[in-house]
Amino acid sequence: MNIAVIGLGIIGGSFCKAIKKYTKHYVIGINRTQATAQRALDSGAIDEIGTPESLSKADLVILAMYPQADIDFVEKNGRFFKEGSVVTDASGIKRAICPKMTELAEKYGFVFVGSHPMAGKEKNGFDVSDADLYKGASFIITPCKTEHKYVEFLSDFAVSIGFGTVKISTPEEHDRMIAFTSQLPHVLACSYVLSPCCPNHNGFSAGSYRDVSRVANINSTLWSELFLENKEPLITELDILIENITKLKDAITADDKKTLTDLLEQGHRVKEALGE
Question: Rounded to whole angstroms, how far apart are CA atoms 249 and 242?
Fold first, then answer.
């Protein structure tokens, strides 16, 4: 199978490396910066540096850019896509991309199946991509009204390159859960390190500081787009977080040990019940 990966950052680069390590598929890499594409070719992560015209021979296309950039690319180059090819994205939001990509699929004759690899690092770019980034990770598929056979096709592909779990979701459920599991922690981490105490943490910090602050090392351009395109679910989760923090703050302010203990115990019980 010929696979085109568009966008050779950490996500796209890791797809390329995983495909070459675990399968015998032919990989075409397309990237805005040619120097990056050349590094990918030189390292063996791709078999060919492609152009939009190369998409005419790709059976599977993986869009690994920012959500709006994915849409812009297909709008500009959709005429080159192979008839009947499967196109997927790797973006962290789905309601903002599925309707438009489904419309473009009908226009240009390809099949769109949304997806989201639940893996990453704090650093970005091809140089930190990893063939085993997805090993054991969850691969979320949002069918976006696509026939089940194409969902199975993409699921089988994900498993073949190391993903451990495939989860099927609607765009709405995906975005609601990602607001909680991914976006809210990034907001929390960024808010946390904005404290004037943060620059002086050395010598006073251990695991708790590292756990809470880790994802503050953020790609601000990408995450700003993701936050704004998933605004409603994220604001809902932020309201819940602020309410819970306020309860704890009020109990501390009032020296109300019983309420404070009860709130902390609630959190303990939730984590304990989850077995984490």
Answer: 10
DSSP 183: I
Place of tokens 């993409």: 154
Strand residue runs (E) in 175-260? none
Per DSSP, helices labelled H in 206-230 are 207-213, 220-229
Chain CA centroid to CA 222, Å: 10
- 3-class DSSP state of 270: helix
C-alpha 142 chain-centroid distance: 13
The closest of 208, 55, 218 to 121, measured between CA atoms, is: 218
**∠ Cα 40 226 144 (to 5°):** 85
What whole-number distance in Å separates Cα of residue 37 and Cα of residue 80?
20
Name every residue whose Cβ is closer than 8 Å to that of residue 187 and which is 6 or more positions away in sequence: 227, 234, 238
DSSP β-ladder status, 111-112 and 114-118:
unpaired
**pLDDT tens-digit readout, 14-52:** 999 999 999 999 999 999 999 999 999 999 999 999 999
Under DSSP, is residue 146 helix (H, G, I), strand (E, B) or coil?
coil
pLDDT tens profile 117-155: 999 877 789 999 999 999 999 999 999 889 999 999 999
Contact yes or no for 70/89 (Cβ under 8 A): yes
* Cβ count within 10 A of residue 271: 9
Return the closest-CA partner of residue 145 out of 170, 123, 174: 170
Distance CA 39, CA 127 (A): 9
Whole-angstrom distance, CA of residue 249 vs CA of residue 236: 20
Q: What six digits make up the tokens of 34?
A: 């040619």
Torsion-angle region of 82 (φ positive above 0: left; ψ -120 to 50: alpha; else: beta) = beta
